[in-house]
Amino acid sequence: MVKKKSTKLKSPAGLALILGVIVLALVIIFATQGQTALFISPKLPSAPTLQTAADLIVTDLSWKWAPGLKAFVITVTVKNQGGTDAFGFITGLADTVNINLVTGKSTPIGTCTLTVARGKTGTCVFNYPVPPRLPFGVTATADSDKRIKESNENNNELSLLVTFCGDGLRMIPNSQGVNEECDDGNSLNTDQCTNSCTRTFCGDGIVQNLNWEGLSEECDDSKTVSGDGCSSQCLQEICGNNRIDFDEECDGTDLPRSCQDSGFDTGTLSCDSSCKYDYSQCSGITTNQTPQQP
Ligand SMILES: [Ca+2]
Ligand SMILES: [Ca+2]
Ligand SMILES: [Ca+2]
Ligand SMILES: [Ca+2]
Asked: Minimum-distance ligand to the CA of 229?
């Protein structure tokens, strides 16, 4: 019986059965390996790491001059771009924002306290009432006392150089976007440079002892014509100032002619109160010509 059974296994049919079993086993192995590879090969993105600390940044630092207040109004905007905590909660943060002058004296302009939640911004407004006559810098620092743990401690500052008309430094343009023609740093409109940092001239309506054009103005009627009392050179047109103005023939000691120039033989030519020649003291005629009066 045993011999007979052994003979059956060695038959072609038996060998085929064994071969089939082997092939099936190999297919299963390869298939399994393929599935394993299918699950391993894709590189899925790793889960985002939650930031548990805040990250305060100064996003904006701006200023403007408020004439009514006679102060620089400086606005600071701080954003908390930190993440949620481990439980996904958004936590409000109290923070102190300092602004410091960085030019010359490091005198703080002021401080304010902000509560800035994640993703939110807060704003502080400061008045700097003393207009310096020099350009100055301001630096806004969020969490200057480092009370708050942040994911990035190195982005808490923003600085700004403030240049303006009146700081004594001509800038094209200045921080206000104004192209300054001049800047003498004072608050006078009666010199060569106005408070708006424009050059003065005859015709600007303001009398300058010495304007930008180099003229010493006696008047300025905002016009550039003569004969209306104020000349095109901003000189007063009046009789009695010892200067011939507009249609005057003479004025006091400003007497360009003599009796002889006018065809008389002798005498003294004078100027009357209307700034016209007075020939009453001229006499004699040396030529055959009729005395010439202008
Ligand atoms: Ca300036
Ligand atoms: Ca001036
Ligand atoms: Ca003028
Ligand atoms: Ca005159």
From this structure: 4
